[in-house]
Structures are given as structure tokens and as C-alpha cells.
Structure to design on (338 residues):
């Protein structure tokens, strides 16, 4: 697999290049696989088979691993889950990661149910950018999708805006027959509050994700529909993520389309994931992984962690096969850290 040029690149450059020449500079750190919502496309109803606390990486262990990534050229860290705010003292971890050498961007993916309480603390800890899941602005539809209360999320969003996070990106998974009638309402909501809006195609992660793909909506169609009402021009947003953006002309509103199915973006993938149990997953849509926790707990050195990270990156596949092989991924999104 590793050809000569790849080996040479590894030897001549301290940063992380995968076997396909992609520079890995972004790590999504899942701090828990638990969540206070039950989005039907994400976690099976009644699911209780969570990782046991003894297997959770401690804040010290997460800090060591992130520091090693930082030495290897990682600049961006995103805290995710499950719902990251379900993990006690998340702002304490954020503060510790924010000061690590090399790391200059700490962001958070959250459902915002607990942001009314924690927004200011997280901002003060150094988190500057947040992504908030919000699939509907109708309380009954929100409840149907997530099992939770919309008002808590709206309160969390307003507290986040007041705390100063910028940008705040709204992630809306597009679910045919359930929330696809709310596209324009969500655009108006984001225009009103100065949020960025991203639409996401459902992914076949585990049985729950696969069931949801029965509600699949091709985002190319959503874009065409929006173009009838708005003057859309090409847009760019900071973040290094997979969304392709347009901007509504004459406004600050950016709209992103995350299209793992209709138009995959693996060629520019710059990330890996660290799960709460200390596994490095090299692709959301593949099983390639490296178990770091046993090494950490066997007393490995910082140099050993760097070696393990390089080993993991060498396993990164060229692309996912969500479309060609939708039954491949048995774990669901909250286990890996979406
Ligand atoms: N709890 C946090 C949140 O709500 O953003 C972080 C974790 S959540 C798993 C991350 C994102 O994954 C959310 O935007 C969620 O809607 C999305 N997601 C989960 N399962 C999905 C699926 N099968 N297809 C597409 N997106 C999914």
C-alpha cells in the first residue's frame, strides 16, 4: 500500500500525510457516546449499551493524545459526541486543549440543550465556533425526530449568540417527508439570527442510519429549490470541513451542503476521529481503526503515541462506500463522534 513517495514524505515531513497524500490536520474528539436526545437516524430507541466509564479516556489521556496530534501538525480540534455537554466539566477539558502548542482552533458540535447553562463558560475556555444540530423549528416535529424539547435548544442557541460564538452553524439533517418542508423557514431563521445553515444528507451509519436513508433527500434538489427563491453566489466559510457553500447575495448568510451520498468529498478529507474509548477511527464510513487506550494504559511514551498516530493514519482508506456498500458500517454515528 505505502509506495515510495509516501514513505519519503513520511520521513521528510513531521506532519501527517495519509497514503493518498492528504494532510491530516483536524481531529474530532468524542468525549462521550451518550446523548440526552434520541434522533431516530442516529441512535436506536432504548439503546443502553454505552461504553463503561472505566473505558472513557480521562481528560489527562485526551490531553496527551491531542498534544501528540498537535506536535504532528494538527491545528483544529472539534469536541463532539454523543452530546459532549453530557460529559461533566467539558469547559475544563476545552480550556486545557485550547492552550496546547500547535492547536489554534477548538470548536464544538452540540445539540445545544445545555448551552443556556454552559455557553459563557465554554467561550471563556477558548471555544470560538460551534455547530448546533437543529432539524426542525416546529416543536412537535422536533419532538418526533429527537424526542426532546425544541425550546431548550432555542434557549441554548440564544445564550450562545449572546456569549459571542462566531460562526454558529446550524446543522439540519434533511429527512424526506418529515422536515423537508421547512427548508425556507430555516433559511429565514438563520438570516434573522446571523447563523450559518448547513444541510446534511442522511448517512447509513448502523441500522438506525440505514432506516433513515429511506427518507433520503438529494441536496442537489434542495439547492435548486433555494435558487428559485434566493440569488445564490459561491461562498466560502472557515472551518476546513466538507460543506460546499453558497451565499445569499446581499446578505451574510452562508448555506452549506454536506453531501456524503450525492457527491462525496473524500478527496479533500483532512480528519480522523478519536472516540471516547480511545480508538482512532480513520474514516466515518469505514472500519479502519487503531485502539490507543491499551497502549496509553500500558504506560507508553509520548513518542509512542506519535508512532501510534502515524500507524493509524497509514490505515486511512481512500474513500467511504456509503453508496456502494451501505450495509458496511455497524456502529452508529454517536459511537464514533459525528
Ligand atoms: N450531539 C452533537 C450534535 O448534536 O451535534 C454531536 C454529535 S451528533 C452525532 C453530530 C451530527 O451527526 C449531528 O448533526 C447529527 O444530526 C448527525 N447525524 C447523526 N446520525 C446521522 C446520520 N445517520 N446521517 C446524517 N447525519 C447524522
Amino acid at each position: 500500500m505505502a509506495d515510495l513517495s509516501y514513505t519519503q514524505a513520511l520521513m521528510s515531513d513531521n506532519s501527517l500525510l495519509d497514503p493518498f497524500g492528504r494532510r491530516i490536520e483536524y481531529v474530532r474528539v468524542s468525549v462521550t457516546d451518550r446523548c440526552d436526545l434520541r434522533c431516530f437516524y442516529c441512535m436506536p430507541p432504548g439503546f443502553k449499551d454505552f461504553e463503561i466509564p472505566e473505558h472513557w479516556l480521562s481528560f489527562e489521556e485526551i490531553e496527551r493524545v491531542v498534544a501528540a496530534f498537535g506536535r504532528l501538525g494538527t491545528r483544529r480540534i472539534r469536541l463532539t459526541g454523543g452530546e459532549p455537554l453530557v460529559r461533566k466539566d467539558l469547559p475544563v477539558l476545552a480550556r486545557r486543549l485550547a492552550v496546547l502548542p500547535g492547536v489554534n482552533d477548538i470548536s464544538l458540535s452540540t445539540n445545544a440543550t445545555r448551552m443556556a447553562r454552559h455557553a459563557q463558560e465554554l467561550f471563556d475556555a477558548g471555544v470560538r465556533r460551534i455547530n448546533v444540530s437543529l432539524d426542525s423549528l416546529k416543536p412537535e416535529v422536533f419532538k418526533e425526530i429527537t424526542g426532546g424539547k425544541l425550546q431548550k435548544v432555542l434557549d441554548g442557541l440564544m445564550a450562545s449568540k449572546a456569549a459571542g460564538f462566531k460562526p454558529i452553524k446550524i446543522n439540519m439533517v434533511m429527512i424526506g417527508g418529515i422536515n423537508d418542508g421547512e427548508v425556507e423557514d430555516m433559511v429565514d431563521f438563520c438570516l434573522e439570527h446571523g447563523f450559518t445553515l448547513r444541510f446534511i444528507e442522511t448517512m447509513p451509519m448502523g441500522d438506525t442510519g440505514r432506516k433513515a436513508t429511506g427518507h433520503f433527500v438529494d441536496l442537489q434538489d434542495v439547492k435548486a429549490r433555494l435558487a428559485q427563491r434566493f440569488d445564490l453566489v459561491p461562498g466560502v466559510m472557515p472551518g476546513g470541513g466538507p460543506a460546499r457553500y453558497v451565499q445569499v447575495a446581499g446578505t451574510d448568510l452562508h448555506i452549506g451542503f454536506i453531501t456524503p451520498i450525492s457527491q462525496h468529498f473524500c478527496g479533500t478529507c483532512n480528519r480522523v476521529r478519536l472516540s471516547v474509548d480511545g480508538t482512532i477511527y480513520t474514516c466515518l464510513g469505514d472500519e479502519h481503526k487503531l485502539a490507543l487506550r491499551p497502549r496509553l494504559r500500558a504506560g507508553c511514551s509520548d513518542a509512542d503515541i506519535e508512532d501510534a498516530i502515524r500507524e493509524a493514519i497509514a490505515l486511512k482508506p481512500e474513500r467511504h462506500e456509503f453508496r456502494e456498500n451501505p450495509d458496511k458500517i455497524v456502529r452508529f454515528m454517536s459511537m464514533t463522534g459525528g
